[in-house]
Design goal:
The structure holds 2 protein chains of 2 kinds. In chain A, 3% of the residues lie in helices and 56% in strands. Chain A is mainly β. By secondary structure, chain B is mainly β.
Chain lengths: 117, 112
């Protein structure tokens, strides 16, 4: 299994509070991703990183920010949580992107279930 | 909007049968396709990837790709109850920063 951990695994918070989710990898992969998964929508990309301090937006980035100060850590922050951000959040990693299917493969962490009341 | 479409199911097959899961994609520039299995409450895990037209076999699993028809499928032979899960199809394009687009998944039930 790819060495990916996420913390916390479960969190309940209140509307308007800030929340930070952490993804940690031990694979030294360059690319890291944050997805959310909701019923009927599948996995939707929030933000991704292609190196330390290099990040870009995905399709559902509003209300989220990210940071990557070390290769192994990718943080997702909800500045002011809303009920619409209740979801399961997955971190993923890949060695590369666009160079070949094997190294482009994304491997997923165990997920964080976030509930915003 | 680049999309990957899957029938949500549930697809129900008897134990020992062949399960056929299908996926279509809208981005003709998509180059690589991935099938993931996701058990309830767990994270997606890779089954296999395919990037050439035709079939690719790995054990009981066969992925099929037809780029002309923009169609990807996954066949599971000798289906087992432990194969009951949601199967996600994903495509990686040549544009848009090589992002991977995921389908919403097909739920499969294998009846013992």
């Amino acid at each position: 299994d790819a060495g990916i951990t996420q913390s916390p695994r479960h969190k309940v918070t209140e509307t308007g509070t800030p929340v930070t989710l952490r993804c940690h990898q031990t694979e030294n992969h360059r690319y890291m991703y944050w997805y959310r998964q909701d019923p009927g929508h599948g996995l939707r990309l929030i933000h991704y990183s292609y190196g330390v301090k290099d990040t870009d937006k995905g399709e559902v980035s509003d209300g989220y920010s990210v940071s990557r100060s070390k290769t192994e850590d990718f943080l997702l922050t909800l500045e002011s949580a809303t009920s619409s951000q209740t979801s399961v959040y997955f971190c993923a990693i890949s060695e590369s992107t666009g160079t070949g299917a094997s190294t482009d493969t994304q491997y997923f962490g165990p997920g964080t279930r976030l509930t915003v009341l | 909007q680049k999309e990957v479409e899957q029938n949500s199911g549930p697809l129900s097959v008897p134990e020992g049968a062949i399960a056929s899961l299908n996926c279509t994609y809208s981005d003709r520039g998509s180059q690589s396709f991935f099938w993931y299995r996701q058990y309830s409450g767990k994270s997606p895990e890779l089954i296999m990837f395919i990037y050439s037209n035709g079939d690719k076999e790995d054990g009981r699993f066969t992925a099929q790709l037809n780029k002309a028809s923009q169609y990807v499928s996954l066949l599971i032979r000798d289906s087992q109850p432990s194969d009951s899960a949601t199967y996600l199809c994903a495509g990686r394009g040549a544009t848009g920063g090589f992002k991977t687009i995921f389908g919403a998944g097909t739920r499969l039930f294998v009846k013992a």
